[in-house]
Amino acid sequence: MADLIDTGVSAPPGALSTSEHSIRTSPSGKAPPGLRMVRSWIDKRFFAIAATPAIVLVTLVTLIPLIVGIYLSFTNYQPISPSFKFAGLVNYRQLYHDGNTHAAIKNSLIFAGAGIVVELFFGLCIALLLARRMRGMSILRTIYVLPLMVAGVASAVTWRALLNTSNGWVNYFLGLVGLGQPNWLASTSTAMPSVILADAWGGVPIIAIVLLAGLLSLPKEPVDAARMDGASEFAILRFITLPGIRPVLAFAVLFRLVDLFRQFALFSIVTGGGPGLATNVLNFYVYQTTFVFGELGYGAALAIALVVLMAIPLLIIFKLASRGR
Amino acid sequence: MATTLPSLPATAPVVGRRSFFGGLIRTRKARRRTVNGLTIFSLCVGALFVLLPLFWLIDTAFKPAQLAFQIPPHFFYRPTLANFRTLISGQDSQYFSDLGHSLILMVSSVLVALVLGIPAGYSLARSRFRGSKTITVWLIIAYITPALVYIVPLYAIYQKLNLTGSYLSLILYYETFELPLTIFLMRSYFSDVPRELDEAARIDGCTRWLAFRKVILPLVWPGIATVTILVAMSSWGEYFGALIFAGPSTTTAPVAIQNYIGLDSSNWSAMAAAACFLVVPVLALTAFAQRGYMRQIQSASTG
Question: Among residues 240-279 of chain B, which lie with CB inside 8 Å of chain A?
């Protein structure tokens, strides 16, 4: 790189038209005119040519399934029977009347809502503490990154074992300190909190690391100035620190909400949607409808419902976050 | 003490307090020490919560199988490799070929994502062609859309094309998240390289391709390494799509681990040993990935 820039100084004068010049001095400069034309054509459209293959593939793998999915949602397609027909709004009408779907939507909202509140609260606390400049902090920061590295399946099987009522460590430790030992995954009232706990294990560190990145990039002067003026620590947090990390905060909330609505491994492995329908969130219910019960057409309609359900809170938060910027 | 003092203005008249506490400096020092102690204490409690599942995983993997279910747990035992041995040569030896499937899928899908995504990222970082803004927005939407929205129709499409169970079906599905992520992150790395370098190379007589290849690309190698790790991780741990699309000859490690969970009895020892294969190699990359996360945060929250 360095010598390429150095030779820029000794470039032959009179190189007025860069495109012409580039052809003349490109490594195989003695190319026949035809090839030269091809080369200059490629050079002029380099950015379009560089982007095209990727854009084509992204379109192929995302847009086509999306369109096919919307089409399938209007059919009664079932993988086991080869013939299917256009069914109009039947699936959407079923969605409107299906009690299980309503329960699943409610569970999704509870899981995502409670999950984001819990994770944001603890994530923010941990980020504020991790941002303090102290000895040994880098070790702690690294520890809090570890859950981000663990595959969802591995953490799911681990939490399933930890929350086991009779053989799990969580109940063992609770017993040690003399607390009750709930029937975590087997009881309808504790199953959802269990999954939220397991999700928080991965989610709190994500929010903490995201917010930490924001906190560390804040300038220190305003905080010092406010402290000089006698502002309380809470006022500094409320009026200087939090507004400063607002874009990062919004990103963390959006990013986590998306993942909460998409959470699958935990429901599939830890609870299986149960007991009963207690943890059957929409994402898992679509999986069951489509691949366990084989109702692919209805599943496609439910998938679209999931996108709508997810898009509403995301758009509201996005609007709130970008207002007054 | 820590709760009452912070609200006191630092510039408040301190004469009286000085005599009472024996000097403002010392009070401040004591306060800082309390706050620091509390910080370390709460962070360590949180760290215990973070480390508990990881400790369980590694502990159970090395524990003799007959001790795995025992309560109170045994923390002192002779570590054994028996659980790993069953995975390699015993009854669960299928797991090793499943790890191989995961590896093949990871390498091929990441290669596709990098080969196509790096030039596209450069292009989006440098030129403002018609629709480049739309493409960026579309990439973000494509990335955050629930996997299910692709999986359901892809299942029908793959069935029609007889692709179910093939590597190709999984690679194509993996590109729904790997490619947008690669393009988006690479765009941010390329944006950090000043445009003047492109221009300098052009004046030197480089074609745009040569300028990209010889001048810009060598500068973003660290970025490419980080992006590779992040994208490879997302492929390595992928579960939902593999559960649906993988056939007997393409079953991935995450799907295989799930098979250790029976309805009535689970084989925790084999499960933990199998999960160790999935988790430990990735943990070794923590430091690199940490940098990548920071980048992801910066580029996503500003752009």
Answer: 240, 243-244, 254, 257-258, 260-261, 266, 268, 271-272, 275, 278-279
A138 in a structural domain = yes
User: Using CA atoms, how far apart are residues A158 and B258, in angstroms rounded to an integer?
Assistant: 11
Under CATH, to which class is B94-263+271-302 assigned? mainly alpha
Same domain, A126 and A51: no
Domain-located, residue A81: no
Cα(A127)–Cα(A216) distance, rounded to whole angstroms?
10
Domain residue spans of chain B: 1-45, 94-263+271-302
User: What pLDDT score was predicted for residue A231?
Assistant: 85
ipTM computed for the complex: 0.82
Give CA–CA dist B223/B189, Å, rounded. 6
Name the residue in chain B with its Cα closest to that of A154. Answer: B275
Question: Domain limits at A61?
Answer: 19-72
pLDDT tens string B197-247: 888 888 888 888 888 888 899 899 888 988 998 899 999 999 999 999 988
Q: Do A153 and B145 touch (CB under 8 A)?
A: no
* pLDDT tens profile A181-213: 888 888 888 899 999 999 999 999 999 988 998
- The per-residue pLDDT for range B129-146, each reduced to its tens digit, is 777 788 888 888 898 899
A179 Cβ partners below 8 Å, 6+ apart? none
Asked if B260's CB is within 8 angstroms of A157's CB, the reply is yes
Total count of domains within chain A:
2
Q: What are phi and psi of B235, to 5 degrees?
A: -75, -40
Domain at A290, CATH number = 1.10.3720.10
Contact in structure between B210 and B201 (CB atoms under 8 Å): yes
Do A237 and A121 lie in one domain? The reply is yes
| Residue A50, pLDDT score | 86
